[in-house]
Amino acid sequence: MNPVRWGILGTAEIALTRVIPAMQSCEHSVVTAIASRVLEKAQAAATQHGISHAYGSYAALLDDPDIDVVYNPLPNHLHLEWSARALRAGKHVLCEKPIAMNQAEVHELIRVRDETGLHIEEAVMIRNHPQWSSVLELIAANTIGTPQSVQLAYAYHAKNRNDYRYKPEMGGGAVYDIGSYSIAIARLIFGDEPSGVLATLIRDENTGVDVLASAILDFPTGHATLTVATESTTYQHVHVLGDRGWIRVEFPFAHPQPTRCHLYIGDASSVGNFHCQEIAFDPINQYTLQADRFSLAIQGRSVATWPLENAAANMAVIDALFESARCHQWTPITKTSIKV
User: Fold this and answer.
1) Domains in the chain and their CATH numbers?
2) What H or E segment, with its residue span, contains residue 109?
3) How far apart are CA 218 and CA 198, in angstroms?
4) Which of 46, 93, 227, 268 reaches 20 to 30 Å from 40, CA-CA?
């Protein structure tokens, strides 16, 4: 079967430095076109990465009949518009997280998806790493008992204050940027949806975007506590505490370079933070796995998929988190009416 043909909307840093280079190692995917509002930028990116077609507008790329999938890494406030336009142009869509600015926008994308019958997902690349299948297998095997607490932290130091991440009207801030990862993983581990959230934010005094966010999510069998920051040192961890043991995920989120990583498992015999078992994973590229998995999905192959209903549930938590921080109290998470 021929590789699935991808077009890239925009020349975002994540596309040029992470996604496109990773896709050059794909077996089932090939990048054939890239678009920018400035043709010269698209042409430069195409030359740099060996892409055959460059377009001076997003609409022109959507009109290309030889593109099967559109990857949308545009600033967050443009995700709804251009993902919907891509679907209506007959393209499948992989859109960067967060896929929209709020839950209502996700439901609009669900409506367009259902109208067109095409496939669209939120690009949460970390879910493609095999370590998360292993975490779920350990939990299913009752290795650590019932998960009671999930502790998550993800931080980096933003270098470019002119970036959209410092513009609230464009969907900037730590919660949209990396909080979506932590929330998705907490929901994955508990295998359920939280009912409420208590959150606090520190905002940049000049732009108003959140640069530090902490939250407690209330799940039926326990709690998740998370902290995300964009003006901190680089750091990441996930720790799952069960009633019979624990799992420490060494490298849960971003892998700027494919890196060997481990799960460390402890039980009642463990002393302190010393583990009694470990599972090692060879270096892989999460973006390569993500693109090929998506391509196989639209070819009708049997692979994991994450429908927009899952993205809506994640966004419901983000909506409630912002409301909790605004009103300084526990906030119920409005349940999506669509089955996740």
Assistant:
1) 4-125 (3.40.50.720), 128-289+314-332 (3.30.360.10)
2) helix 103-116
3) 9
4) 93
- The average pLDDT across 89-116 equals 98
Report the length, in residues, of the chain. 340
Which long-range contacts does 13-20 make (Cβ < 8 Å, 24+ apart)?
14/73, 14/96, 15/71, 15/73, 16/45, 16/48, 16/49, 18/287, 19/71, 19/73, 19/287, 19/291, 20/45, 20/49, 20/51
According to DSSP, residue 218 is labeled E
Are 211 and 202 within 8 A, CB to CB? yes
Q: What is the pLDDT of residue 273?
A: 82
SS3 of 84, please? Answer: helix
**Cα 183 from Cα 197, distance rounded (Å):** 11
Q: Confidence band (pLDDT; 50, 70, 90) for 335?
A: low
279-309 confidence digits (pLDDT tens)? 999 999 999 999 999 999 999 999 999 999 9
Distances (CA, A) of 54 to 44, 90, 223: 9, 19, 48
The pTM for the full model equals 0.95
Question: Which residue's entry shows tokens 């994450």?
Answer: 306
**Low-confidence winner among 213-227, 274-288, 325-339 (lowest mean pLDDT):** 325-339
Helix and strand element counts for the chain (H, E): 11, 15
Which of the 8 DSSP states describes residue 39? H
Q: Which residues are catalytic?
A: 97
Whole-number Å distance between alpha carbons of 317 and 214: 13
* Inter-residue contact 166 to 158 (CB < 8 Å): yes
pLDDT exceeds cutoff 70 at 336:
no
Q: Which two tokens stand for residue 184?
A: 């998705």
Using the structure block, give the residue that is written with the tokens 């042409």.
Answer: 43
Question: CA 57, 59, 64, 69 torsion: positive or negative?
Answer: positive
Q: In this predicted model, what pLDDT tens digit does every residue of 223-244 receive, in sequence order?
A: 999 999 999 999 999 999 999 9
